[in-house]
Amino acid sequence: MDSPDRGPAGEAALRRLVFIELPPAFAMDLGGFKTDPSIPLPVETGPGAPEGAFDPAALSAEAIVAGMLRLLAWRPDHEQAAYYRAFVLAVRPGIMVELSQAGISKAQAKEWEIAEEIFRALAGLFPQAPEPLLDLAIISEDRAEAYLASGREALAEEMDERAFEAYKRLLALEPPFPPAFFNAAFFFMRRRNFERATSLFKTYVEISDDPAKKAKAEEILERLGRQGYLDNLFKEAYDFIRLGEEEKGLERARTFVERHPAVWNGHFLVGWALRRLGRWEEGRAAFERALELGAEGVDALNELSICLLELGRLPEARRSLERALRLEPENVKVIVNLGAVALRQGRPGEAEGFFRTALELDPEDADAARWLERASSAGD
Question: Rounded CA gap, 1 and 181, in Å?
């Protein structure tokens, strides 16, 4: 396995390790694995300990295993990595299941950094196993969606890039790992690269032995073709709008709508470009048409609410957001926008409640923090 991009988190984790040497008398046999006292052992320094300091009284098998796992997480190419892998597996033979469950639990609790380090440790411990790498891709996607929901697009892009790199490695494995193709196809769908998603779904159908997921992939392939997603105009329009060239994106989106008038996603792209251009009334009409044609998810409802808010149609904006919140009760962007509507309606106390809820869900959401300060000032 290649050494991962450690970044600040990895470098900080490695600084908490020290290497110790044990006397020859400590050589032992661990179920067929013979320890080698001449190889230094990575151990974690205690909480609050000075960098590079280690209290020998804290030495234990768990401290050694923890140190080895941290090293394998961030330095899987270490010169003694093979020895550390064998050591950990001798001491904790069931660690794959144990750590996988712990990582999933942390990811579900949105303790992203801990979950990421756990999956990195598994990937370093089992370099030939694709499952930990897939877990890393999935957690990066989850983080990207969470950041996008709170309006932190730069962080979302960074997480998507991590997922992309993980999928590139997974898709190059031999023999092919079918779950990677299935999950990567959804990743590219979210990125609006429907041509790549189609290719991956087709490959998945050919190599998978999971009847339920194969049926799902075939259903999506049929829908992608029927709804015009494979028309290259759609991707061009999406990319232009995303990159800030709204006029070019709008032109292509409208051409797409002419070709596929009954497909909701074309009307959504038209509305998205118009909203970013500040053409609120035209954007409102486009989003409402997208919803009439069956637009999926909260994006159309949230975008519609922005146009309605700017048009001064506050009750309608609120109803649109409330409908979106029923679909995704923890969508931070929707909750913040509900607070903005409440503030515009002269309800600073209610607005504060929305902004505080958003910050409970995502303490780092800058928009929620700014709006909360504004609402607090309005309520004084």
Answer: 20
For helices 130-149 and 153-171, give the axis angle rounded to 10 degrees. 160
How is residue 83 written in tokens?
A: 């020895």
Separation between Cα atoms, residue 203 and residue 192, nearest integer Å: 19
Q: Measuring CA to CA, how many Å separate 18 from each of 65, 75, 79, 80, 287?
A: 13, 14, 16, 14, 58
29-30 vs 33-34, strand pairing mode:
antiparallel
- The neighbouring-strand residues paired with 45 are none
State the Cα–Cα distance between residues 6 and 4, nearest whole angstrom: 6
pTM of the model: 0.71
What pLDDT, in 10s, does the model give residues 200-217? 999 999 999 999 999 999
CA distances from 375 to 30, 108, 349, 351 (A): 63, 31, 7, 7
For residues 90 and 197, give the distance between their C-alpha atoms in angstroms, rounded to a whole number. 41
Long-range contacts of 156-164 (CB under 8 A, 24+ apart): 160/187, 160/191, 162/136, 162/137, 163/137, 163/138, 163/187
Give the Cβ contact number of residue 113 at 10 Å.
Answer: 11
